[in-house]
Design a protein that fits this description.
Distance between the termini of chain B: 35 Å
Helix content of chain B: under 10%
Radius of gyration of chain A: 14 Å
Distance between the termini of chain A: 41 Å
Helix content of chain A: under 10%
Radius of gyration of chain B: 14 Å
Structural class of chain B: mainly beta
Largest sheet of chain B: 7 strands, mixed
Structural class of chain A: mainly beta
Number of helices of chain B: 0
Shape of chain A: globular
Order of helices and strands of chain A: EEEEEEEEEEE
Number of helices of chain A: 0
Strand content of chain A: over 45%
Number of strands of chain A: 11
Strand content of chain B: over 45%
Largest interface: A-B, 26 and 27 residues
Oligomer: heterodimer
């Protein structure tokens, strides 16, 4: 059974704070790790996909790292803004053959102005 | 192309009724996935297609659920004799699979089903 775990489950921060979330996944049979941002009433939006141990990706104020040997990924948001409020999902792909994703339960971020 | 489109966005149905959802993927994408998300959980895989072939079904997909992708374009997900436990967000995603490399999936906005 493959479990992808995210922590914390929810987070409330003030505008301007920096924050980070954790995603842990089984390191065996790993192929790729995805991060999605899901705002209410919208589609989950792909942020990053990482495949190699030590990968680091950045998009604006958001960055992510990957450790496949120990089975974790961190997502960082620098200087949080109210528009960053969303649920952040990580998902592990076991194999490129199916593309099937195993999702964590998500971290819901609320940024207060 | 405006991305993955799902219809309807919301559906309220009485227990025991049948419902059908539709997903239109990004036009050149050959793979199509269905996921289900319940409150407090992440999306869970239900099934996927490559072109018109249904290649994998989760054990979550009971006999009351059926999915089709005729002609390898749009897909439908039907739930027969709905139960309250079927209330969830049903997400569709599509991707372009090729033998080499890895491509990410793009999601629709989902269909929220409420069974009363």
């Amino acid at each position: 059974i493959l479990n992808v775990e995210q922590s914390p489950q929810s987070l409330h921060v003030q505008e301007g704070d920096s924050t980070n979330f954790t995603c842990s996944f089984p390191s065996s049979n790993f192929y790729a790790l995805h991060w999605y941002r899901w705002e209410t009433a919208k589609s989950p939006e792909a942020l990053f996909v990482m495949t190699l141990n030590g990968d680091e990706k950045k998009k604006g104020r958001i960055s992510a790292t990957l450790n496949t040997k120990e089975g974790y990924s961190y997502l960082y948001i620098k200087g949080s803004q109210p528009e960053d409020s969303a649920t952040y999902l990580c998902a592990s792909a076991l194999s490129s053959n199916t593309g099937k994703l195993i999702f964590g339960q998500g971290t819901t971020l609320q940024v207060k102005p | 192309d405006t991305g993955v489109s799902q219809n309807p966005r919301h559906k309220i149905t009485k227990r025991g009724q049948n419902v059908t959802f539709r997903c239109d993927p990004i036009s050149e994408h050959n793979r199509l996935y269905w996921y289900r998300q319940t409150l407090g959980q992440g999306p869970e895989f239900l099934t996927y297609f490559q072109n018109e072939a249904q290649l994998e079904k989760s054990r979550l997909l009971s006999d009351r659920f059926s999915a089709e992708r005729p002609k390898g374009s749009f897909s439908t997900l039907e739930i027969q004799r709905t139960e309250q436990g079927d209330s969830a967000m049903y997400l569709c995603a599509s991707s372009y699979h090729r033998d080499r490399g890895y491509t990410e999936a793009f999601f629709g906005q989902g269909t929220r089903l409420t069974v009363v």
